[in-house]
Amino acid sequence: MQVELSAGTVEYTDTGGPGPVVVPVHGLLMDGTLWDAVAADLAVDHRCVVPTLPLGAHRHPMREDADLSLPGIARLVGEFLARLDLRDVTLVGVDTGGALVQLLMADGAARVSRVVLGSCEAFDNFPPGLTGKTVVASGKLSPRLFGLFMQQMRLRVVRRLPIAFGRLTKRGDATTAGWVRPLLTDAGIRRDAVRMLRAAGADPGFLREPAERLPAFDRPALVVWASEDRVMPPEHGTRLAALLPQGKLVEVADSYTLLPLDQPAEFARLIREFTGR
C-alpha cells in the first residue's frame, strides 16, 4: 500500500482487522520488514500498520524539498497517522524509530494512547556506537561515493561487522540484507539517504531538549530494553522509564538492539500484554 504525504510517497503494510491499532517505527537504513514477525504475531488480535519511512531503505525517492532531518521525519510519522485517520494508536519504536517516537511524545502525540520504546537512542546517545558513527559519517560522501561505500554491505561478512549490523542483531541477517538493495539500485534513494544522514550529523543533540518534555507524557509507556545491548546503554532504558509518569521497564534476554528480529515472539507478547489483549 502507498500514501501520498507532504514529503512524497510512503509505502506501508496494514494487517487490517478491528483490534487495537499498533504502528511500529523502524530506524536508519531499515524498512518496515524489521517488524514482519512481530506484525504477523500481533495480527491475530491487533491491526498493525507499518510504514517504511525515508530513512535510507525506502523504495520511492522523496521530493527534493522534503525535510529529511530526524525531527522532520518524526513530523512525517504524525502526518501518516493523520492521513490514515488512525486513532488510539500504540506507537512502537526501536533503534532510531524509538528516537522518532520520543520526538512525537514531546510534541503531544494527539493520536497516540500509549507507547512502547524498545532499545533506542536517547538523551545524548547519537550517533550510537560504532554502527551509528560509521553510518552518519558515511553521509559526508557524495551520493555516488556513498553508493560505492554501501556496495560492500552485499557481503554477509561485512554486514556482521560491528560497524554495520553486527552489534544490532544476533540473528536477523537475512532481513538486513534486503535493506541495502534500494540504495544500490536507485540514485534517488542514495540522494535521500545522504541528505538524511547529513541532517542527522548536523544535529547530534536533537534528543536532549525533547527529553526534558517527556515527563509531560502522561499516557502508558512501556520501555523494553535488550539486556545484551551493546549500542544503546541499559541505563538509558532505566532513565526513560523513570522520566515517564506511567513508565514501566522490562528487560529482554538473548537480544541485541533489534528486538523485533532477535526476540519477535517475546516482543509481540509484551505489546499484547501492554495493550490488554
Number of strands: 8
Briefly, what CATH class? Alpha Beta
Structural class: alpha/beta
Strand content: 15-25%
State the helicity in percent bands.
40-55%
CATH superfamily: Alpha/Beta hydrolase fold, catalytic domain
Instruction: Give the SSE order as H and E letters.
Output: EEEHEHEHEHHHHHHHEHEHH
**What is the average of the pLDDT values?**
97
Number of domains: 1
Q: Could you say what the CATH architecture is?
A: 3-Layer(aba) Sandwich
Radius of gyration: 17 Å
Distance between the termini: 26 Å
Strand order of the largest sheet: 1-2-4-3-5-6-7-8
Q: Total number of helical segments? A: 13
In terms of per-residue confidence, which ranges show pLDDT below 50 for 5 or more consecutive residues?
Answer: none
Task: Describe the global form.
Answer: globular
CATH fold-level name:
Rossmann fold
Largest sheet: 8 strands, mixed
Overview of this protein structure:
- The chain is α/β, with parallel strands linked by helices and 277 residues long.
- It has one domain: Alpha/Beta hydrolase fold, catalytic domain (Rossmann fold).
- It is 41% helix and 18% strand.
- It has 13 helices and 8 strands.
- The chain has an 8-stranded mixed β-sheet with strand order 1-2-4-3-5-6-7-8, sandwiched between helices.
- Strand 3 (21-25), helix 1 and strand 4 form a beta-alpha-beta unit.
- Helix 1 (36-42) crosses helix 13 (264-275).
- The longest helix has 16 residues, at 187-202.
- The two termini are 26 Å apart.
- The model has no long low-confidence stretch (mean pLDDT 97).
